[in-house]
Amino acid sequence: PVDDLVLQPVCWITAVIGLTIGPWAEEVFYRERVMSHLENRTGWLTGILISSTLFGILQFRPFLFLPAVLFGFASGWLRSQYGIKTAILAHVLFNLLTLSLAWTQVI
């Protein structure tokens, strides 16, 4: 049951990483490094599309590919319009929603 799972230390460690280090590291890498580099070479839209697709592929879970690409595109747009801090915050909120749904057995 979920109640037993929530009590496991690995769940709490995963949650902490997924709500802190993970979003920061992924956004800095995919949006600040990869997307910025691609934008300078190929333009805004292509940079976001390629970095989002790479983000989806590197989730290493086929059923998460499309949601990850769509989230990556949204995050890339947020970064380009409002800055990296907004993209990181959106990623934290997305992970919080995902964790909440997973822990309540919706997904």
Could you describe the 3D structure shown?
- This protein is mainly α and 107 residues long.
- It is built from six helices and no strands.
- α3 (21-42) packs across α4 (44-57).
- It is elongated and about 50 Å long.
- The two termini are 14 Å apart.
- The mean pLDDT is 90.
Count helical runs.
Answer: 6
Helix content: over 70%
Name the beta content range.
under 5%
Strands, total number: 0
Uncertain runs are none
End-to-end Cα distance, whole Å, is: 14 Å
What sort of overall outline do the alpha carbons produce when their principal axes are compared?
elongated
The secondary structure category is: mainly alpha
Mean pLDDT: 90
Describe the biggest sheet? Answer: none
Rg (CA only): 15 Å
Give me the strand/helix succession.
Answer: HHHHHH
Structure, briefly:
The chain is mainly α and 107 residues long. The protein contains 6 helices and no strands.
Keywords:
84% helix; mainly alpha; 6 helices; 107 residues
Topology, pairings included?
Layout: H1 2-6, H2 9-19, H3 21-42, H4 44-57, H5 65-82, H6 84-103
